C-alpha cells in the first residue's frame, strides 16, 4: 500500500518535473547538463510508468516474461547514469562530455548483465519478489546484484559530486541539493543493504530477513527525499514567479493614476496594444509610456520640481498636464523626470508610484 502510494506520487512529480524541464529547455536552450537532466527525469518517469500492473502485464505478454523487470531497472540505470553526468563537478563542457562517455561503459555492461541474467532465470521466478528463497537461484540473485550494485554506484557518485557543489551553493539551491543528497544517500544505502541480503541468502552465510525490510524502508525514504529535492527548485521558481506577478500587478494598479494623467495630455506616447500581455510586459509598457510623457511635459515643470516632495510634484505634474493640453508642446529643454532608484523594473517604477499615490490622495 505504502509503496503503491509512493510510486504514484513519484510518477506525478516526475511527470511535472519532466514538463518543467522541457519548458526550461524551450525557453533557455540546452547544453549537455540540461539535456542529461531531462533524460534522467524522462527515464525515471518511464520507469514508474512501466512498473504499473497493467502496463507490466502488457509488456510481458508482447515480449517475454520478465521484460518489464529488465526495462524497469534498465530505465533506472539510465536515469542514474544521466544524473551522474548532471552532477559531475567540472566547469568545462569538455570535461562533462568526457565523463558522459566514461559512464556509458558501466551502463552498457549493467544493461547487458540485466538482460542475460533475466534469461538465465527460470520463467516461473522472473516476476517473483525478492525473498530468502527466490535469491537462491543464481540467475535471479545475479540480476538483483547487478541492478542494486549499479544503482548503489550511481547514487554514491551523485552524492560525492553534490557535496562539492554544496561548498559553493547558497539559498534555495543549497537547501535543494542538501535534501537531494540525503535522498540519494538513503537510496545508495538501501541498495547496499539489499545486496547484503541477496548475498547472505544466496550463499547461505546468514539469515537476516530484516535486511529486506530495512532496504525497502530506506528506499522509500530515499525516494521521498529525492522527490522533494528535485521538485524544490521547480516549486521555488513557481512561487517566486507568482509573487513577482502579484507585485507587478499591484505596481501597475498603483501607477495607473499617474499614467492616466500624463497619457491623456500626451496620448501619442501610448504604444499599440497587442494580445493580452503578461503582468511584467504590461507594467514595463506603462513605465515606458509614463516616462516618455514626463519627458514631453518636462519643459512645463519648474526647476524646483526635483527638490519638491511627492505631494508637491503631483500638483506640479497636474498643472503641467493641463498646460500641455491647452497650449501643446513648446520649445524648450527636456530633461529626465523622476529618475529610477535602482536596477530592474521595480527600481524604475518606485518614484513614479509615490507621485501616483499623491495624485489619488489629492483628488
From TrEMBL:
- Please indicate if the UniProt record lists Transmembrane helix as a keyword: yes
One Pfam match, by short name?
Answer: DUF6545
* Coiled coil start-end: none
Domain named DUF6545: which ranges? 246-359
Q: Which UniProt keywords apply?
A: Membrane, Transmembrane, Transmembrane helix
Q: Which segments cross the bilayer?
A: 6-23, 35-59, 71-89, 101-121, 133-156, 177-199, 211-235
Write down the NCBIfam families for this protein, in alphabetical order. MAB_1171c_fam (NF042915)
Report what the protein is called: DUF6545 domain-containing protein
Species per Swiss-Prot/TrEMBL record: Gordonia soli NBRC 108243
Amino acid at each position: 500500500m505504502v509503496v503503491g502510494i509512493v510510486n504514484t506520487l513519484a510518477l506525478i512529480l516526475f511527470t511535472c518535473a519532466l514538463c518543467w524541464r522541457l519548458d526550461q529547455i524551450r525557453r533557455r536552450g540546452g547544453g549537455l547538463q540540461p539535456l542529461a537532466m531531462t533524460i534522467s527525469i524522462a527515464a525515471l518517469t518511464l520507469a514508474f510508468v512501466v512498473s504499473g500492473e497493467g502496463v507490466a502485464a502488457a509488456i510481458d505478454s508482447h515480449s517475454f516474461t520478465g521484460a518489464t523487470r529488465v526495462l524497469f531497472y534498465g530505465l533506472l540505470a539510465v536515469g542514474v547514469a544521466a544524473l551522474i553526468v548532471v552532477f559531475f563537478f567540472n566547469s568545462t563542457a569538455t570535461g562533462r562530455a568526457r565523463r558522459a562517455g566514461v559512464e556509458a561503459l558501466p551502463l552498457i555492461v549493467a544493461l547487458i548483465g540485466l538482460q542475460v541474467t533475466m534469461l538465465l532465470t527460470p520463467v516461473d521466478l522472473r516476476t517473483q519478489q525478492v525473498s530468502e528463497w527466490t535469491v537462491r537461484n543464481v540467475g535471479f540473485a545475479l540480476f538483483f546484484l547487478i541492478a542494486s550494485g549499479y544503482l548503489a554506484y550511481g547514487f554514491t557518485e551523485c552524492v560525492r559530486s553534490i557535496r562539492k557543489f554544496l561548498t559553493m551553493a547558497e539559498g534555495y539551491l543549497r537547501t535543494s541539493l542538501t535534501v537531494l543528497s540525503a535522498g540519494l544517500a538513503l537510496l545508495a544505502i538501501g541498495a547496499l543493504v539489499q545486496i547484503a541480503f541477496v548475498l547472505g541468502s544466496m550463499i547461505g552465510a546468514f539469515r537476516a530477513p530484516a535486511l529486506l525490510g530495512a532496504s525497502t524502508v530506506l528506499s522509500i525514504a530515499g525516494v521521498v527525499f529525492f522527490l522533494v529535492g528535485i521538485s524544490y527548485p521547480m516549486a521555488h521558481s513557481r512561487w517566486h514567479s507568482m509573487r513577482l506577478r502579484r507585485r507587478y500587478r499591484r505596481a501597475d494598479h498603483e501607477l495607473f493614476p499617474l499614467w492616466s494623467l500624463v497619457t491623456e495630455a500626451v496620448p501619442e506616447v501610448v504604444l499599440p496594444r497587442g494580445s493580452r500581455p503578461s503582468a511584467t510586459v504590461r507594467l514595463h509598457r506603462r513605465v515606458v509610456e509614463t516616462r516618455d510623457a514626463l519627458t514631453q511635459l518636462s519643459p512645463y515643470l519648474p526647476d524646483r520640481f526635483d527638490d519638491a516632495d511627492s505631494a508637491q510634484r503631483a500638483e506640479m505634474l497636474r498643472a503641467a498636464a493641463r498646460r500641455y493640453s491647452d497650449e501643446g508642446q513648446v520649445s524648450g529643454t527636456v530633461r529626465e523626470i523622476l529618475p529610477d532608484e535602482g536596477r530592474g523594473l521595480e527600481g524604475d517604477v518606485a518614484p513614479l508610484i509615490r507621485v501616483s499615490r499623491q495624485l489619488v490622495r489629492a483628488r
